[in-house]
Amino acid sequence: MSNPSNGQIANVLNETRLFPPSETFAKQAVIGSLRSYEELYKESIEDIEGFWAKQAREHLHWFEPFHTTLEWKNPLAKWFIGGKTNVSYNCLDAHVLAGNGDRIAFHWEGEPGDRRTITYAEMLNDVCRFANALKQLGIEKGDRVSIYMPMVPELAVAMLACARIGAIHSVIFGGFSAEAISDRNNDAQAKLLITADGGWRRGKALSLKDTADEALAKSPTVEKCIVLKRIDNAPNMTPGRDVWWHDLVANASEDCPATSMDSEDSLFILYTSGSTGKPKGIRHTTAGYNLYAKRTFEWVFDHREGDVFWCTADCGWITGHSYIVYGPMSAGATQVMYEGAPNWPQEDRFWEIIERYRVTILYTAPTAIRTFIKWGDHHVDKHDLSSLRLLGSVGEGINPEAWMWYYEKIGGGRCPIVDTWWQTETGGIMMSPLPGAIACKPGSCTRPLPGIVPRVLGHSLADVEANHGGMLCIEKPWPGMLRGIWGDDERYQQQYWSLVPGMYLTGDNARRDDDGYYWIMGRIDDVINVSGHRLSTIEVESALVSHPAVAEAAAVGRPDDIKGQAITVFVTLKNHEPTDAMREMLKKHVRKEIGALAVPDDVRFTSSLPKTRSGKIMRRLLRDIAAGKEGTGDTSTLEDYTVLVRLRNDDES
Ligand code: WTA
Known about the structure:
The chain has 653 residues and is an alpha/beta fold. The protein has a domain at 87-259: Rossmann fold (3-Layer(aba) Sandwich), CATH 3.40.50.980. 32% of the residues lie in helices and 23% in strands. The strands form eight sheets. It has an eight-stranded mixed sheet with strand order 12-11-8-6-7-14-15-23, with helices on both faces. A seven-stranded mixed sheet has the order 5-4-17-16-18-19-20, sandwiched between helices. The protein is globular. Bound molecules: 5'-O-[(S)-ethoxy(hydroxy)phosphoryl]adenosine (WTA). 5'-O-[(S)-ethoxy(hydroxy)phosphoryl]adenosine (WTA) binds at residues 272, 317-319, 394-397, 419-424, 445, 506-508, 520, 523, 614. Residues 272, 317-319, 394-397, 419-424, 445, 506-508, 520, 523, 614 line the site of 5'-O-[(S)-ethoxy(hydroxy)phosphoryl]adenosine.
């Protein structure tokens, strides 16, 4: 157990299973042995600038070469200075010019079952026409464009068209409310909003345009609104402001050369929630972000010809930016894009899609995996998933038992799982197994990618010993790093670069084990401090989820006069009754798995856990509930937080 006085966090998760890549997998992999990874890693950190300069020269198209690789005036980084490139050129023209225009970019499937197949050449054509349409509306380089759309191919077209002419996009997740949209429009001073009449979700046509109209009434900087017809519900169109997408592109020319962009010109802003509730606009730029998204995609997903990649994220999140649009498309990948819910019309929709398109790589989130477990194996058993060769996870820690289910049930025991740790701010994956080289341990994001130097620090800012938790920081700049918070330099400095001088503060806790593997222990403020022992929430949760009756669990601390904090856990059961006997059984189980220290003081059963729209458990809300600040009525039986979530969701993402 750790010494609590020096700010280290107790490590109580004892996961020892090891899953090395099979020989067949390793033989075909881009990076096929631990030695190759270690050599590449060593080379990358011995000469960070030389390493990235070579990557940039070889893997991006340059209209003009850069003269300086990096200028690092902490906390401001500039990469590939003097270089001129264009992200949409790298994602489209490069493939068409290389003779790969006929390659499929997207197999798209709408929720009602409509399907489209789009090649790279068609995508280029659509992007050029839409980019010309944007110009026609007066959009210029540097203008901010908000995008509020369902998961349709035109969402990627809109993003790439902005990139093509140098407009800065701000994608707003299609589930957000009018308030959230207008906040983002106003913060970014957006000139244009691109939306759709609606989209499909669980069989219902959602009317996006109504929400957009409500937001536009409070968005004085937005002059025009482009509306894509998706559900054909005859929305209200304001004359002079609103234009149909199809009318705009009808006569637009296909000829739109990509604008030569400076490496450090802004590519996009993406709003993410912060500790204060006011969303922050994370700013990413052109060349560094593009290179980082592309190379991390190729390394982590071991991408090769013939792969069919499916990332189930929405483009409203960073995962959709980096691993649907910019990474895979720069790499010329063939992808699946799906509009709707995983349980429409039935709970096997994902498995049906994998079977139909012979998906080889699936990238999804732990919250989805836990939901699939709850829905039951019989949905999976109906389908042939033998095309899969690699699985990925992102967004939260994956509990070891969920990892095992994913590995065995979905991957048939033959697919490595890349547990990818990264953030909106990092632009791309920072730590993950390279699937042909690094043996997986369930629940660990394993080791850093080339060029990334993680450090785990205690409160005294010294490195903690192996197997002790501390604050996860990144020592050296990397090309995909955020370049700031839109319009708030002070918050950028204060939030990421103040507590630990000279290093990027991730806001997560982590520990490194004896093999140099990293284990993310949750956000810094998720730590529970019981009698001076700091426990991480994920460890208590993983212990609970390892009980066969438990589907999901969230652990939080609540004030306790004696212990400082007591542990409250919120538990969702798989078809079991929420009884006192079950409560006692779970406490006993945690005692057995971790020890007396971690035994929950309160076990509360709930039909579902409150989640942010991107699927992360809302521990802040649960903390308030546990502390009795937010009443939910009778706690003796099942609780339901959906109402509270609806009230709260607007300032969370
Ligand atoms: C958490 C998502 C454990 C972490 C790409 C991080 C993870 C935050 C993992 C960023 C993982 C993401 N294991 N925790 N594999 N991936 N996280 O900005 O707390 O939506 O700081 O980016 O999610 O969330 P964001």
